[in-house]
């Protein structure tokens, strides 16, 4: 088996696990399940050569583990944003190459970093609609990143996540209105 197939199989397992997380109601169980899901998805990214995707998932695991124990206030939020940036900048230095292909990898490599930063910053937003917009934006970044890695299994689930959140926004904006 080649690495693209193995990476897609691992990513598919993580994506299917991500669906299961949607059925969990307890905050602590959600955070724990997400840690497992991030680990699987990160492994898929790493197999496919997506180092920054792996780093984004790793920092998300650390963030969730922190949230088990303490409230996610402004200071820890900034600390996790800095950790994400520092680790990502460090990996970006050695994973890009010369020429247009290197520039493309550099730019696309920032998508999971920006997605993780954006999601972390807005993690405590009160509005369900606003959180769904954040999820749509961040999943769109992951979609471009996953597709560039030939991570087709994750790309399909990125699209499904975007569509389900668009539908969720539709339901939230039309709740209580008669049709």
Total helices: the number is: 7
Beta-strand content bin: under 5%
Q: Uncertain regions: pLDDT < 50 for 5+ in a row?
A: none
Give the termini distance in whole angstroms.
Answer: 52 Å
Give the ordered list of helices and strands. HHHHHHH
What is the number of E strands? 0
Mean pLDDT over the residues: 88
- Which sheet architecture does the biggest sheet show? none
Structural class: mainly alpha
Radius of gyration: 17 Å
- The rough form would be described as globular
Determine the fraction of residues in helical runs and give it as a percent range. over 70%
Describe the structure.
The protein is 83% helix and 0% strand. Helix 2 runs antiparallel to helix 3, helix 3 packs antiparallel against helix 4 (74-95) and helix 5 packs antiparallel against helix 6 (128-148). The protein contains seven helices and no strands.
Summarize this entry quickly.
The chain is mainly alpha-helical and 179 residues long. It is 83% helix and 0% strand.
List the helices and strands and how they pair.
Layout: H1 3-21, H2 27-47, H3 51-69, H4 74-95, H5 99-121, H6 128-148, H7 152-174
């Amino acid at each position: 088996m080649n690495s693209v197939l193995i990476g897609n199989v691992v990513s598919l397992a993580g994506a299917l696990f991500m669906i299961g997380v949607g059925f969990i109601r307890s905050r602590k169980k959600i955070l724990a399940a997400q840690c497992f899901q991030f680990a699987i998805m990160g492994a898929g990214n790493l197999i496919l050569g997506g180092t920054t995707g792996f780093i984004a998932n790793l920092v998300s695991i650390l963030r969730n583990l922190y949230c088990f124990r303490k409230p996610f206030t402004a200071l820890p939020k900034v600390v996790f944003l800095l950790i994400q940036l520092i680790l990502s900048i460090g990996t970006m230095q050695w994973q890009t190459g010369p020429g247009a292909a290197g520039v493309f990898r550099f730019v696309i490599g920032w998508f999971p970093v920006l997605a993780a930063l954006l999601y972390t910053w807005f993690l405590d937003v009160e509005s369900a609609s606003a959180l769904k917009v954040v999820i749509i934006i961040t999943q769109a970044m992951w979609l471009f990143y996953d597709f560039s890695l030939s991570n087709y299994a994750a790309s399909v689930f990125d699209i499904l996540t975007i569509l389900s959140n668009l539908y969720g926004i539709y339901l939230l904006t039309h709740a209580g209105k008669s049709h």
